[in-house]
Amino acid sequence: MVKKLTKREKYTIYALSGAILLFILFQFIVFPSIDKRKRLKRTLQVKEDALLEMITLKSDYDAIEKRTNLAKIRFENREKGFTLFSFLDRLTGKARIKEYVTYMKPSTTVQKNNSYKISQVEMKFKGLTLQQLTTYLHMVETSKNMVNIKRLSISKTGKQEGFLDAVLQVETVEK
User: Which of the four CATH numbers 3.30.300.90, 3.30.70.1560, 3.90.1110.10, 3.30.70.60 does domain 84-174 have?
Assistant: First the structure.
């Protein structure tokens, strides 16, 4: 049957056969491989993003674990019988501002489902200088007893220039 066809018809059949082969080649081999490659690239990008997030989370976790271990060590190294009230009282003596203390009110909050309690002391100072206050605050915040200042209120005294009144709330965790 092919022998009876003219040259022009043969070229047309060859061209159509080639076109059909190209169509089949592209439809079943080239396009699927391109789609698969795109899918793999997207999957790879998603996995890389997940890996970066995991690395970030691991870094955050390590930092938290380091702070937790440091806090445990500091907590264990506290002197036996540590109380926030006596600690703050000693610090006011060291900072030479004991005479400026108007009051010290201790309070304790017991944690549910926990053997720890939060101990707080509210202190009021009258008529001290900014330098005295900052020295005392620095001593409180930099102590190794895991004590922090929760709230601080500063106001000018009406009596003399350069003197302040301050109310601060200090807290720590105790067993």
Answer: 3.30.70.60
How far apart are the two ends of the chain, measured CA to CA in Å?
Answer: 101
Residue showing tokens 């002197």: 79
- Residue 136: count of CB within 10 angstroms of its CB: 23
Q: What is the DSSP string of 34-101?
A: HHHHHHHHHHHHHHHHHHHHHHHHHHHHHHHHHHHHHHHHHHHHSPTT--HHHHHHHHHHHTT-GGGE
**Does the global pTM surpass 0.70?**
no
Indicate the domain borders of the chain: 1-77, 84-174
pLDDT digits (tens, 9 = 90+) for 59-76: 999 999 999 898 888 888
Neighbours of 149 (CB within 10 A): 12
- Quote the CA–CA distance of 100 and 81 in Å, as a whole number: 26
Token pair 């003399």 is at which residue?
A: 160
Based on the number of CB atoms within 10 Å of its own CB, is 121 exposed (0-12), middle (13-18) or buried (19 or more)?
A: buried
pLDDT tens profile 112-136: 887 788 899 999 999 898 899 999 9
